[in-house]
Amino acid sequence: MIEPEIRVEYRTVHGYRRAYRIAGSGPALVLIHGIGDNSSTWDQIIGLLARDYTVIAPDLLGHGQSDKPRADYSVAAFANGVRDLLSVLGYERVTVVGHSLGGGVAMQFCYQFPRMVSRLVLVAAGGVTRDVSPALRAASLPFAPQMLSLLRIPGALPLVDRIARLAAATPAITRFPSYSPSYHFGDHPDLIRILSGLTDSSARAAFQRTLRSVVDWRGQIVTMLDRSYLTAQLPVLIIWGDDDAVIPYEHALLAHAAIGHSRLETFSGSGHFPFRDDPRRFADLIVEFVSSTPTTPFDAVAWRRLLADGRQSTKLAGDVNTVDAVLEVFEAERSAT
What we know:
Blueprint: E1 7-13, E2 16-23, E3 28-32, H1 43-49, E4 54-58, H2 75-89, E5 94-99, H3 101-112, E6 117-123, H4 134-139, H5 144-149, H6 156-169, H7 188-196, H8 201-214, E7 215-216, E8 219-220, E9 236-241, H9 250-258, E10 263-267, H10 274-277, H11 279-292, H12 300-309, H13 320-331
Parallel strand pairs: 3-4, 3-5, 5-6, 6-9, 9-10
Antiparallel strand pairs: 1-2, 2-4, 7-8
Helix pairs in contact: 1-11, 2-3, 6-7, 9-13
């Protein structure tokens, strides 16, 4: 079967150029990439999904071919940007798929614009609890912009490539007290690809603003779990690699427990980019999930009741240890948007 053409298009919203990939026809799927990445990360997936759906994959502001102004790069602002782009394109209700930072944006989008969401897919999503790659923690520190600026020097990326390969062969140097994953070398090409996009000064500045809105030296600072109960009427699919060295697989279990009605699919041996490790399985899961989960119109009365009742611990799923871990996250002093 010939895959539909993937087009890169542009719209100007609030004076800023927004780039996005689009393909196919039918019900709309929105794919939201992670920090420092861009919509090309979905290229292997878009063609497979576009046989049955209209697939829209935006470059978030500050990323890819979208403009990179001095602006608000919080998850709430990104959610606003997705809403505005969809409104310009004429889509009123969509299935949202978010990876890493994009998972946090997708969850925020559901919270801010519940009328627009029919289903939610979280892929190795940020915003569960503090744990995150030590490299991202370090990148949030004051001296990090100067270090990242070295990427513009010829030969810097090949050097980073060699250092990463050395780190992969020397597990002992990656040991940290709070979160100490081994380097998942399957993610290596994608991490180098993302770093190559930071050789431009405006891209680096946008990356730093985005990162510092969600991560500091202690880890992630924004949580989505405190409002996860608001997905009660929404079909939710969680996809995670069990060898994720950026956001640990344990976060999948916490998110699955907090969203008690969710479905969890584990990619064994996969890292932070399960949709690139096994695009066919990933696309098949999305197609099956969308086709098998009927949605209902947004119910404002039910939404108001959920907000009034608040989070109910009786709605949590999983074993005792997992539920206790979720409750600990709820009780921690975390910043929520």
